[in-house]
Amino acid sequence: MKIAAPAQKEILRRRTFAIISHPDAGKTTLTEKLLYHGGVIHETGEVKGKSGSKAVTSDWMELERQKGISITSSVMTFDYKDLRINLLDTPGHKDFSEDTYRVLMAVDSACMLIDVAKGVEERTKKLYEVCRMRHVPIFTFVNKLDREGKDPLALIDEVEKTLGMQCYPVTWPLGIGQRFRGIYNRITQEVMIYDQRREGDEVRIFPFKGPDDPILFEYLDRESAEQVQGELELIEGALPPFDEKAFLSGEISPVTFGSAKQNFGVNTFLDFFTRFAPAPQARKTQAGPEMDPLDANFSGFVFKIQANMDRRHRDRVAFLRICSGKFERGMKVQHSRLQKELRLAYSNQFVAADRETVDEAYAGDIVGVNDTGNFAIGDCVSSQGKVRFEDIPKFAPELFGKLVVGDAMKRSKMQEALQHLSEEGAIQLFMDPHVGMQDPLIGAVGELQFEVLLHRLQDEYNLDVRLQRLPFTVARWPKTKEGKATDQLKGDFTIYRDMIDQPVILLNQEWDLNWAVRENPDIEFHTSISRAR
Ligand code: G4P
Prior knowledge:
Blueprint: H1 5-12, E1 14-20, H2 27-37, H3 59-67, E2 75-80, E3 83-88, H4 98-103, E4 109-115, H5 122-133, E5 138-143, H6 152-163, E6 166-169, E7 171-174, E8 182-185, E9 190-193, E10 204-207, H7 215-219, H8 222-238, H9 244-248, E11 252-257, H10 266-276, E12 299-307, E13 316-324, E14 326-328, E15 332-335, E16 340-343, E17 347-351, E18 354-357, E19 360-362, E20 366-371, E21 380-382, E22 394-395, E23 399-405, H11 411-423, E24 428-432, E25 436-444, H12 447-461, E26 465-470, E27 474-480, E28 496-497, E29 503-507, H13 510-519, E30 523-526, E31 528-529
Residues 21, 23-29, 51, 92, 143-144, 146-147, 259-262 line the site of guanosine-5',3'-tetraphosphate.
């Protein structure tokens, strides 16, 4: 049964997305400008206290500072035109962790942010692959056009070749770096003139009649104008019209150009985004049929758990992506895994770094519910019956270590703690067949996970341990072409086991993986794995 019309309207105006990028591409800067356009902040520099700019103070951030861990807010919500936009943070830099990948399980689209000088970087590629797994539609924003960088055609070619995804330029830059003079919007057939000396957000906009329009020569030097002419002739001639269906299935990415720092091209991106970004999408369930976001049954899943966010309460917050229906504070829900009823009593929505209690939320929204230990990553809740969405996969760790506990008497306590923390998704454990589970290997995607692990072992379990690093950097789950887990590999590999007893190989470097692939042409080496059912 569908939910009542007013709630349907709310759901259909939700747009939930994340920015995927390599550190320093400008994610914070772009986020800030998006929040500025959404009216959440009125002056840039309010979002993050980086390099001395205005810091947002909350208990939560204070705690993170004390721990030496920086996290920004998890979800930023703003209204633009008639839409309610949820921008999910994908932690980067030092705070990169498996959570960053998991966030992408909770979005309906993503914006891939690329530094025009750097092109497709390693982190972007990894995050892109996670989006690709779910066929998430991807917008591309090419940033820092006010700086020297790659030729736009070469950049598009690089994106297409590196990621195997077609690009559709929505805008086209008029020059770059010192010669950057503006952007041509192919949809509205207008040019926006970039003027570094401009005050405020006003930009001059002129209609554009195509590659022969004299305006190119008015604003650009002859050489740049001729280059843009050539580029436009090429893309106008070679490209079919924008194929919305191919975009929605993740095959084509619409590309916009701009400078987040100069707040130029950001609103063009936002206009395009609001026109084409999908509303909350139906989710696959393990039982088979998809869950319609407009269903009257409230349902959602946990994609992230943040421990001890509030020093006074020592609470944990489970971040829930609502998949269908309406959330009401205090509502009773069925916890599918534990098969018990829970009351979702405390909830928060996050605007910039402030926590605000919310009474209502809709499919597409993220709510933070207070957790006293009931939730694990991937848990599902619903107001009626038992709903289970597809599992959140585990992603290949790149950092490995072992724990050395000073007091041998505390060994079993440590094993118990590790077991618990791995179930929570904080780290991954692997069993060495020669050693067994009493001394597991610990895998993490980012350095922060180790920091948090040591802190929590000390803080919550009173365990004083030392981390001994291991040289592995690559983990892969071998499977047959039919998708069956296998430990039958040619070559001298130790087969480790993960927590659900799936075979895994751990390798020192990418080169070893290439060798494994060459030796085992019939085996697929997976970078992520879901629980086999
Ligand atoms: P991140 O969150 O992706 O890591 O990147 P962030 O926004 O922090 O930006 C990284 C650096 O790139 C910052 O410079 C930022 O100002 C700069 N930047 C972002 N967008 C643009 C752009 O469109 N043009 C230019 N020229 N620079 C851009 P910084 O020196 O680290 O900090 P700041 O002193 O400028 O704040």
